[in-house]
Design goal:
- The protein is an all-alpha fold and about 250 residues long.
- It contains five helices and no strands.
- α2 runs antiparallel to α3, α3 packs antiparallel against α4 and α3 packs across α5.
């Protein structure tokens, strides 16, 4: 015969244990959800989505019952811009996930940052489903190709941005080169003027030396006949002395 009285205490203990665990789990989930909701969003507000929803749900003007009708072309263009922004966010999430996971394993980042990233990833998935539904509502089977067109638009925007950057850099480089060219030309002209001045001074000095040498040659030439006459006179004197001795 089973003694239910002796089993009451273990059963009560198990019931209290299970109840406390369930309460703790519920409180932990609620706290985690509240903490996750209070975290700063990973991305900035989705402006393109807000514009599309504003166009889709325009309110009627004061004094009118019907809201203004937005052309389908405008809605498609707004939805395409929204999809392009989603493509940019998808690429950012994919490129950041592996690096962030490695940093989390090393302990370099906190769990709050990882929770923000996971929430952003879930928001992106919900956003993609919403865009596909809106595209199919505007045009049948457009949801299968809208992200392909958005991807092309995103890459074209990147190329256009790079081209503008290169053009701006080329203009700056051109201005820098013009300044360097003008500076080099001015320095070259200064050096050339200094060289011409230095070369003109030795020419003047050499001209003076030549004049002095010419004068010296004139003096030497002028003294030439006198020395020759004196030599003749001395020769004559010596000849007379020799005759007297004889």
């Amino acid at each position: 015969m089973v003694d239910w009285l002796s089993l009451t205490v273990p059963i009560a203990y198990l019931g209290v244990l299970v109840g406390s665990l369930a309460t703790f789990s519920s409180l932990y989930r609620k706290r985690k959800a509240a903490k996750s909701a209070s975290l700063e969003p990973w991305f900035a507000p989705h402006l393109q989505r807000d514009i599309y929803l504003s166009l889709l749900h325009l309110e009627p003007e004061p004094g009118k019952d019907k809201s203004p009708t937005v052309p389908d072309g405008v809605l498609k263009a707004a939805l395409l811009q929204r999809a392009t922004e989603d493509i940019r966010r998808i690429l950012e999430v994919r490129s950041s996930k592996q690096a962030l996971s490695n940093l989390l394993q090393r302990g370099s980042v906190g769990d709050d940052l990882w929770q923000r990233f996971l929430r952003a990833e879930k928001e992106i998935e919900a956003e993609l489903r919403d865009v596909v539904q809106e595209a199919n509502a505007l045009q049948p089977d457009w949801g299968q190709t809208i992200f392909q067109s958005a991807n092309e638009m995103h890459h074209n925007a990147i190329l256009r941005e790079k081209l503008n950057t290169i053009q701006a850099q080329g203009k700056a480089d051109r201005e820098w080169w013009d300044q360097q060219k003008a500076s080099i030309q001015s320095n070259f002209m200064k050096e050339l003027d200094e060289d011409t001045k230095e070369n003109s001074k030795p020419h003047a000095a050499s001209g003076g030396d030549r004049v002095g040498s010419d004068e010296d040659s004139v003096i030497v030439e002028g003294g030439g006949p006198a020395t020759s006459g004196a030599a003749i006179a001395s020769k004559g004197g010596t000849a007379k002395k020799r005759k007297g001795k004889k």
